[in-house]
Amino acid sequence: MNKGLGKVAVLFGGDSAEREVSLMSGRAVLAALQGAGVDAHGFDPAERDLHILKEEGFARVFIALHGRGGEDGTVQGALELMGIPYTGSGVMASALSMDKWRTKMVWLASGLPTPRYAILDADTDWAAVVAELGLPIFVKPVHEGSSMGATKVTAPGELKAAWELAARYDRLVIAEEFITGEELTAPFLEDRALPLVRIVAPGGNYDYQHKYFADDTRYDCPCGLPADEEAALQALVMKSARVLGCRGWGRADLILTADGRPYLLEMNTSPGMTGHSLVPMSARVAGLEFAALCLKILEGARLG
């Protein structure tokens, strides 16, 4: 038994729209930690009150929750109050990164490239948004991940319906200029950028189904870029994480245009750890197998 890490809770499940994926992530992490001799126990906040963590003497927490109620600073705040160290980013960075709108504002204020956008509501001038951003437009809820409620709009008449779909998930909806190029994701572990992963989805449609369940999406890692270009993108990603205050581990998604211009899309502070997940894939290329990756993340658990 690995007693140095104490009694560990793996938080998974929860009640967000990403519960299904979180259950897969958490079970994989739990099995890996237990296999490595850690005294790890599964804990679903949708079924048990968080204060039980303190009562039952958990020494640290591995957060494998995705979406609201787990990745948005709320659970992190509760753990801070209980004095239980946890994995990943703190309260502020978790809340900020979960908010795609305010993430973009911080990136733009820091001189970092991200697609142009507009916030949508019932009073939006749909024609004006199309005129400003052009077509296609990507519409998504501000506070959801895993492509929940997201739509690629290719005709002006589709924009309002896309907003209505996204608004079922969140009162804040963002429309984003659609950037054509290679889709890349860039994990990081502590202060180290891991190898980039190139994502090639059928028809360029990297939606919820293709992310977690389909087998026809191709992932290239190494990504195939020249070493100097990959290093430049990794440096960009580490800066994007620093200005948001991220720590521990995470993953930034970006697009690289044909003429070599990168655009940051969003930051994930509690990425997936499923069989289709990208952080484990990248870590493996860097020499870290899944169990070693989980241990490394857990060892970095802290407060504040």
TrEMBL record:
* Any one of the GO CC terms: cytosol
The residues listed in the UniProt record as binding Mg(2+) 2, with positions renumbered to this chain, are: E266, N268
Enumerate the GO terms in the molecular function aspect.
Answer: ATP binding; D-alanine-D-alanine ligase activity; metal ion binding
Note how many cofactor molecules are bound and how.
Answer: Binds 2 magnesium or manganese ions per subunit.
Alphabetized UniProt keyword annotations: ATP-binding, Cell shape, Cell wall biogenesis/degradation, Cytoplasm, Ligase, Magnesium, Manganese, Metal-binding, Nucleotide-binding, Peptidoglycan synthesis
Q: Where in the cell is it found?
A: Cytoplasm
The chemistry this enzyme catalyses reads: 2 D-alanine + ATP = D-alanyl-D-alanine + ADP + phosphate + H(+)
Associated pathway: Cell wall biogenesis; peptidoglycan biosynthesis
User: What EC number(s) would the UniProt record show?
Assistant: 6.3.2.4
Query: Which Gene3D superfamilies does the record associate with it?
Result: 3.40.50.20, ATP-grasp fold, A domain, ATP-grasp fold, B domain
> Which residues take part in binding Mg(2+) 1?
D253, E266
| Active site (record annotation) | E18, S146, S277
Its cofactor is: Mn(2+); Mg(2+)
Q: Name one GO biological process term.
A: regulation of cell shape
Family listed: Belongs to the D-alanine--D-alanine ligase family.
Record's protein name: D-alanine--D-alanine ligase
This chain's source organism reads: Thauera chlorobenzoica
Per the UniProt record, the lineage of the source organism begins with: Bacteria, Pseudomonadati, Pseudomonadota, Betaproteobacteria, Rhodocyclales
